[in-house]
Structures are given as structure tokens and as C-alpha cells.
Specification:
Length: 470
């Protein structure tokens, strides 16, 4: 197949953007973007009862968070119903389809009889080769004429050659009796009209490909390149479900995972490039290929997800991190940062992002700059502020009054203080963490002092030393 690569993501708007759907979208996006192709979005909203605007909005929001931009406007499948019906009638006119007047009762009776005789229950319509002159004036469906003999071969880029006997395929319905097209027809017509060259989707659609190829062949259209990717399983190897944790991508955003880490992890979920684990979007687009997708279901591993997210937080630009933290707080329905908090967080980012795997972890470490004086220590930190420790802080404060407030100078002051008072540094660091942050797990005391500045540091030390005094 020559020409520009065109892929598509075609979700049904009946709920949130599932993690499996997000990975399918990512694979299509990577394949197109890495080849200067086009990545299209089609909302498969033909199920009018279950499709909702809210679900469509949730899917668009999930794709936006993941950074998977699509080319052109999102296409509504339901809006193309007239075009889908037109193709069905074209197939009818060329003899590749036929009108079937069989009722539901007749079809049920056929299947019951076939089952009793131990024969195939695939419905064989008596109207397939009927004389048009004998057709009644009654409701009918339009069925595709599937070859009765031979095989259909799906040359799949992931699954290999998959051969299906044609006598195992029924004459599928194209148009219902009310004139509305079925999903299988709509998919093929839309993919053809959109110029889709590569169909990358879950392997639960593999059998659909055999039936859809009948429409391509009958219409004389080019069959796209197929790539049916394995589904995602939970850590226990079973089909992914709510018991395994979050299923919708918006839940991952609300839990504080960075989108770059999520993209990296989803790309590695069923696809590999040598031993590479951590990579950028640019590298993923350059490396991604269908030959790197495995045949076996991938397993969710939250530890790997966190490790990759930690690496992406550490490597991220500070301003970009701040922007994404704002979006995380909104998604998690938490209060937005004040202007002062954002400024402080920006100053502190260099000493926060190296060891945080999620945004909640980063913000917990940032409590020293986000909190206002007076600092209220948590239970563990409060234990570090006994009478002896408060005395140590009171004695240290004058030593810091005239320090030049550089790291070297501060390290020198604290080193001399511990030597003169015959203290181990840990005996001083604990109370300092409690005084400056109200927490026992923080960035280094030197980083906190540098970010807070001289005045705020001294105020917090004075306040901590004065705890318990009347």
C-alpha cells in the first residue's frame, strides 16, 4: 500500500475512555505521527440509546489529557447513515447483496431445527437466490452475499495469517428492515471514505475483519492493513475489570500520574523496542512499528507505571510540570494553587521532582513551601519538637542571622553548630524538618532553607522554638 498513512481511533460513546481504548488510540497515533501520516477520530455513535454527549465529552477529554491530538474534526458515524445505506443499495444493485424477507420467527425456527439435526445454526436465507418477481410487499433486510465455498484470509500484521472458512460466515445484515445501517457496514464505509490505510484495533474485532472484507471485496475497494492487538489483562492474568483498579484514563489523571509517563507506559504495554523502557514521545514515534507488538495479552503493572512516571516527572520542564499539576488538582477536585503557592512551587521544583512518582507525592514533599506560617506539625513531626529539640533550634537561630544564605554557607553554619554542641547531624535535621515543613519526610533541610529564604526560615524556627511557652 502506497501513499500517506492514515489511521483512526473509533470509540463508542457509551462511557469513559477505557485504558484499553486509550492504548489503541496511542498505537494509532504513534504509527501515524511517526510516518508523517494522519490520525483521525471517529465517534461510533450509531447506538442512539446508549450513546451520550457526556460520554463523547469524556472521551475527548481523556484523549486531550493523554496528548493524542487528531487531525481534522471528529466524525460522527451516525451522521453518515444515508451514505451507509447508499452503499448497501449499491451492493444490492450489483447483485452482491439481496433482500431477505425472513421473519424473526422463521429464523428462530430454522436455527432450532438445525440444532436438533446437529447441523450449523448459521441462518441460510431462502431469499438469497429467489426470483425478484416472487418477492412480497413486506418488510425486508438487506443481506450481503457471502461466498459459500473457499476461505477468507486475514493477513494480519500482529496475528499473522488467519484463515476462516466461508461456510462459517453468514450472510450478514447490512440494512435493517427500518432502513438503518448496521455497525459492520458503517465501519467499512467510513474507513473507506476516510481513506484509512491501517486498521489498528483490539483482537476482539478479528472475526469482524473477515466479515468486513466481504464488503470491501464486493465494492472493489482496497482492503486496509489489519493489525489486531491483544487485550490488556490485570496483574493476575485475567480480563481487566474494576477489581483490578482504575479502568478510565480520567481516573489516572485524578490519581496524579503525568500524561507523559502514562503514554510511555501504555506504549510498552504490549509493544517493545529492544530493552528500552523509558523514552520520549519523539523516540516512541520514531521507533513504533506493528512488528514490535506481541501476540499475548499485556498485563497491567502499577509498579512499572509508577517507576516510569517518576522518571518523566524528574525529566520534565518545571513550567510544564506546574501546568499539569494545575490540571491534576482540577481533575482531583482539590483547591487550586494560589499565585504565591505556584511561585513557591516553581522555586522548589528542582528539589521536589527527582523522587516523586506521582503529583500527590510531589505535593506532599512540597508542603513546606505550600503551607503558611505558623506551621502545624503532623503527629510524627511533632515528636521531633520536644523541649531539648526546641532548645537546640533556639540556639541555632542566632547563628543563621548573618549567614549569606548560600548552600555552602548554610552547610558550614550547621556543621560548626553540630560540632560545637557535640551533636550528630540527624539530631538537628529532625527538628529542622519539623520546624520548616511540619513533616518528617521532606527535601533536604538546606534546600528548604534556600527555597524559603532567610526571613521565612528564621520565623519558622522561632515559632517552633516557642511551642509550649506561655
Amino acid at each position: 500500500m502506497t501513499g500517506q498513512v492514515v489511521t483512526r481511533f473509533a470509540p463508542s460513546p457509551t462511557g469513559y475512555l477505557h485504558i484499553g481504548g486509550a492504548r489503541t488510540a496511542l498505537f494509532n497515533w504513534l504509527f501515524a505521527r511517526g510516518r508523517d501520516g494522519r490520525f483521525l477520530l471517529r465517534i461510533e455513535d450509531t447506538d442512539r440509546e446508549r450513546s451520550t454527549p457526556e460520554a463523547t465529552a469524556a472521551i475527548l477529554k481523556g484523549l486531550d489529557w493523554l496528548g493524542l491530538d487528531h487531525d481534522g474534526e471528529a466524525i460522527s458515524q451516525a451522521a453518515g447513515a444515508a451514505r451507509h445505506a447508499e452503499v448497501a443499495h449499491e451492493l444490492l444493485a450489483k447483485g452482491a447483496a439481496y433482500k431477505c424477507f425472513a421473519t424473526q420467527d422463521e429464523i428462530a425456527a430454522f436455527r432450532e431445527a438445525a440444532k436438533a439435526e446437529g447441523k450449523s445454526t448459521l441462518f441460510q436465507s431462502p431469499w438469497r437466490d429467489a426470483d425478484p418477481a416472487t418477492q412480497p410487499d413486506a418488510p425486508f433486510v438487506i443481506r450481503l452475499k457471502t461466498p459459500l465455498e473457499g476461505t477468507t484470509v486475514i493477513d494480519d500484521q500482529v496475528q499473522g495469517k488467519v484463515t476462516i472458512r466461508n461456510d462459517q460466515l453468514d450472510d450478514m445484515i447490512l440494512l435493517r428492515s427500518d432502513g438503518t445501517p448496521i455497525y459492520m457496514l458503517a465501519v467499512v464505509v467510513d474507513d473507506h471514505d476516510m481513506g484509512v490505510t491501517h486498521v489498528i484495533r483490539g483482537d476482539d474485532h478479528l472475526n469482524n475483519a473477515a466479515r468486513q472484507m466481504g464488503i470491501y471485496t464486493a465494492m472493489g475497494w482496497d482492503v486496509p492493513v489489519w493489525a489486531h492487538i491483544p487485550l490488556i489483562h490485570g496483574p493476575d492474568g485475567k480480563k481487566l475489570s474494576k477489581r483490578h483498579g482504575a479502568l478510565g484514563v480520567e481516573e489516572y489523571q485524578a490519581m496524579g500520574y503525568p500524561s507523559a509517563g502514562m503514554r510511555n507506559y501504555l506504549a510498552r504495554l504490549g509493544w517493545s523496542h529492544g530493552d528500552d523502557e523509558f523514552f520520549t514521545d519523539e523516540q516512541a514515534q520514531q521507533w513504533f512499528g506493528l512488528d514490535g507488538i506481541g501476540k499475548s495479552p499485556a498485563r497491567l503493572d502499577f509498579k512499572k507505571l509508577e517507576n516510569l512516571c517518576g522518571q518523566h516527572i524528574a525529566a520534565a520542564d518545571d513550567a510544564a510540570l506546574l501546568h499539569e499539576i494545575d490540571a491534576y488538582l482540577k481533575a482531583a477536585e482539590q483547591p487550586a494553587l494560589t499565585s504565591a503557592q505556584r511561585d513557591g512551587l516553581g522555586r522548589a521544583m528542582y528539589c521536589l521532582k527527582d523522587r516523586a512518582k506521582t503529583f500527590p507525592q510531589l505535593l506532599e514533599k512540597a508542603e513546606f513551601i505550600l503551607a503558611k506560617s505558623p506551621i502545624v506539625p503532623d503527629e510524627k513531626a511533632a515528636g521531633q519538637l520536644d523541649a531539648v529539640s526546641r532548645g537546640i533550634l533556639a540556639a541555632l537561630t542566632p547563628q543563621l542571622q548573618n549567614a549569606s544564605w548560600s548552600r555552602d554557607e548554610l552547610e558550614g553554619v550547621l556543621s560548626r553548630f553540630t560540632e560545637e554542641n557535640e551533636l550528630k547531624f540527624g539530631k538537628l535535621a529532625g527538628p529542622l524538618r519539623a520546624a520548616l515543613a511540619g513533616r518528617s519526610v521532606t527535601p533536604s533541610v538546606f534546600d528548604m532553607m534556600l527555597v524559603l529564604g532567610r526571613d521565612e526560615t528564621l520565623v519558622r524556627l522561632d515559632q517552633a522554638a516557642a511551642i509550649g511557652k506561655s
